[in-house]
Automatic annotation (TrEMBL):
Summary of the function given for this chain in its UniProt record: The purine nucleoside phosphorylases catalyze the phosphorolytic breakdown of the N-glycosidic bond in the beta-(deoxy)ribonucleoside molecules, with the formation of the corresponding free purine bases and pentose-1-phosphate.
Description of how the protein assembles with itself and partners: Homotrimer.
GO molecular function, one term: purine-nucleoside phosphorylase activity
InterPro entries named in the record: Nucleoside_phosphorylase_d (IPR000845), Nucleoside_phosphorylase_sf (IPR035994), Pur_Nuc_Pase_Ino/Guo-sp (IPR011270), Purine_phosphorylase (IPR011268), Purine_phosphorylase-2_CS (IPR018099)
Gene3D superfamilies registered for this protein in UniProt: Nucleoside phosphorylase domain
Pfam family, one: PNP_UDP_1
UniProt similarity note: Belongs to the PNP/MTAP phosphorylase family.
Record-linked CDD domains: PNP-EcPNPII_like
Enzyme Commission number, as recorded: 2.4.2.1
Pathway note: Purine metabolism; purine nucleoside salvage
Lineage: Bacteria, Pseudomonadati, Bacteroidota, Cytophagia, Cytophagales
Originating organism: Pontibacter ruber
Name of the molecule in the record: Purine nucleoside phosphorylase
Keyword Transferase among record annotations: yes
Length: 271
């Protein structure tokens, strides 16, 4: 595994003239527009990078983008890998581990999620303050890769407090309500039943989605500070459950996208 990670990292370095990314960004469903804010220096197709999984979801394009955002060097995953696509957890988190080998200092993750907190509305942004892993596995199962991190990594403070506070101030200055809450990750790909939405809300989640937690676990295993944010694309509270169609999720994500792009840009600027 380490050797594969090193070969991927070496390929990326060789094809980007030694460009040194400081921050990693993973863009979720329909949130690709942050890319427009980036001064792109290099764009690599996942298919060309040795050992990289290849994205299969239509709404995700599989490219690794290296460039500058607010004057800082970033590496951006345009399209991520989901457990429900059939990848192993190690494949899902492979690019995050490669980022670490490229010396990336902090990780920013976004996703689309169903809202469970009755105070939320579709198109809201929610800063992730903690998570609940409801996926049937995680990327640390199996022999520990000691070069990456410890066997039993702490998970008591997963999401960086300082960046959460910075995000709240940025939102306040820009005059929009930024929610905070707990993100539960389910395997998918089916959406939740009414009973499942109810259950996930009762165990303490404010939002539910099908990604993010594996990558965050891998990042924290390696000691990388993480900032996570969800776009609430539909509501799973008992009185507001509607039949979810992908188009509605993408439309809601598109409404939130400019705010999300601004937030990540300003947050990166402040690191
Ligand atoms: N549930 C799970 N994943 C999701 C949802 C949801 O309601 N909305 C967007 N991703």
């Amino acid at each position: 595994m380490i050797q594969q990670l090193q070969e991927s990292a070496a390929y990326i370095q060789a094809h980007t003239e030694g460009f040194a990314p400081e921050f990693g960004i993973i863009l979720g469903t329909g949130l690709g527009a942050l890319v427009k804010e980036i001064e792109i220096k290099y764009s690599l197709s996942y298919a060309d990078i040795p050992h990289f999984p290849v994205s299969t979801v239509e709404s995700h394009s599989g490219r690794l983008i290296l460039g500058t955002l607010a004057g800082r060097n970033v590496i951006v995953m345009q399209g991520r890998f989901h457990y429900y696509e059939g990848y192993t957890m190690n494949q899902v988190v492979f690019p995050v581990r490669v980022m670490k080998l490229l010396n990336v200092k902090k990780l920013f993750v976004s996703n689309a999620a169903g809202g469970l907190n009755p105070q939320f509305n579709t198109t809201d942004l929610m800063v992730i303050t903690d998570h609940i892993n409801l996926q049937p596995s995680n990327p640390l199962i199996g022999k520990n890769i000691d070069e990456l991190g410890p066997r039993f990594p702490d998970m008591s403070d997963v999401y960086d407090e300082h960046m959460i506070r910075q995000a709240m101030v940025i939102a306040e200055d820009a005059d929009f309500d930024l929610r905070e809450g707990v993100y539960a990750s389910v395997p998918g790909p089916m959406l939740e039943t009414k009973a499942e939405y109810n259950y996930i809300a009762r165990i303490g989640a404010d939002a539910v989605g099908m990604s993010t937690v594996p990558e965050v676990i891998a990042a924290r295993h390696m000691g990388m500070p993480v900032f996570g944010i969800s776009v609430i694309t539909d509501m799973g509270t008992p009185d507001r459950i509607k039949k979810v169609v992908l188009k509605d999720i993408l439309d809601a994500a598109a409404v939130a996208e400019p705010r999300l792009a601004m937030l990540i840009r300003e947050l990166v600027r402040q690191q």
